[in-house]
Amino acid sequence: MHTTLAEWVSGALERNNLPGISTVVPLVAEASHRHFYRITTGPRSFVVMDSPPDKEHNEQLRIMQKLFTQHGVPVPQILAEDERGFFLLTDLGQQHFRDAYAKGAVDECLQIAIDQLVNIQNVKDAAIPPYTETRLRDELGIFSEWFVEGLLEAQTPDDFTTTSDLLVANALDQPQCCIHRDYHCRNLLITPDGELGIVDFQDALVGPATYDLASLLWDCYHRFDVQTVRRWQNYYEACCQFDFENLAKVTDLTGLQRQLKAVGIFARLYLRDGKTTHLAYIPPVIDTMTAIARSSPETTTLADWLSSMAAPAACQIDKATS
Q1: How far is Cα 251 from Cα 254, in angstroms, rounded to an integer?
Q2: What are phi and psi of 308, to 5 degrees?
Q3: Considering only CA atoms, which of 77, 7, 69, 9 is closest in space to residue 37?
Q4: For all residues of the chain together, what is the average pLDDT?
Q5: Does 157 score more than 90 pLDDT?
Q6: Closest C-alpha to 26, from 35, 17, 34
Q7: pLDDT at 242
Q8: What is the model's pLDDT at position 33?
């Protein structure tokens, strides 16, 4: 923790009648410009976030934190903040879903996550921006620009424009509601009390109803078997407020759109920001994308390109940089 931030934290703790810092532990790097630290002050712990206001949506974080709290969504509370992007937050714990999955608690985690997802979809406010067609297309462009052309130094598949049109239409044709937009095992926690905790929510939008479900079940950081995905899709369909003609296909295509974006972001982190932290995730995400793409006749050409060209090239790059 740099000196300026440490001095601010010490003052924030004092203003909240809390003891001084005992320990500081940097938290895992994420796909943004923010930095996080877990601090202890006596018997309690808190999270410190350094979020550069010129690079991150800090005002939207404040708005969504208030909205989600009002609707009972379990997000961290802001105890102190600073115009430089410094935040002192309550600590929701250290057990992420990925840790709980490894302990065999898959069903318990997915149930509470989907139950809360349904609650999030009921959050309505004019301050939540829409997930526009322009944004959807720009995000698919990240895959083309940073992964295909930038990292692989290759050409985008011939029918990628047709595939993009399909994925954008799939997103826009769904019921639109509040979505967290990064609802996966690294942003979902089990609190010390055994409850759900949710972080990284500042980019919430009004968007496709299956977006968070696809993020959860077609996770970029943990792969479920298809039977698990389908079972929990059915659970969501039984408790959500929307009707779908073919929920499995809609969710699959949403997952494919999201994972194409994610692979592009992972490549951009390396090429633009010099971060190798997410390169290792690209090959398994491509494997998952390939499996999803093979399930729909409209995307089999993309599946062939992913398996024959993208997957081998991504594996070579990961080995060369690890």
Answers
A1: 5
A2: -90, -30
A3: 9
A4: 94
A5: no
A6: 35
A7: 97
A8: 81
* Topology, domain 3-91: Phosphorylase Kinase; domain 1 (3.30.200)
Q: Tell me the two tokens of residue 232.
A: 């929990």
Q: Is the pLDDT of residue 183 over 70?
A: yes
Helices (H), the chain: 3-15, 58-70, 97-102, 106-120, 133-142, 160-172, 211-217, 226-239, 247-271, 282-294, 300-305, 311-321
Residue 161 has pLDDT above 70, yes or no: yes
pLDDT at residue 320, rounded to an integer? 81
Neighbours of 70 (CB within 10 A): 10
CA distances from 148 to 104, 141, 152, 162 (A): 36, 10, 5, 17
A 10 A CB-CB count for 42 gives 10
Determine phi and psi for 20, rounding to 5 degrees: -70, 175
Instruction: Write down the residue that tokens 């919430």 correspond to.
Output: 204
For residue 39, which of 13, 62, 69 has the smallest C-alpha distance?
Answer: 13
Give the CATH number of domain 96-321.
Answer: 3.90.1200.10
The encoded tokens of residue 144 equal 């083309």
| Residue pair 79/16 in contact by the 8 Å Cβ criterion | yes
Confidence of residue 252 (pLDDT cuts 50, 70, 90): very high
- Residue ranges, comma separated, of all CATH 3.90.1200.10 domains in the chain are 96-321
Please choose, from the candidates 198, 226, 219, 252, the residue with its C-alpha nearest in 3D space to the C-alpha of residue 101: 219
Could you tell me the two tokens for 16? 């909240």
Of the listed ranges 31-40, 95-104, 106-115, 119-128, the least confidently predicted one is 31-40
Choice between 146 and 30, residue whose per-residue pLDDT is larger: 146
Cβ atoms 215, 209 nearer than 8 A: no
H-helix or E-strand containing 132?
none
Tell me the average pLDDT across 193-220: 96
d(CA 95, CA 86): 24
By the 8 A CB rule, do 122 and 67 touch?
Answer: no
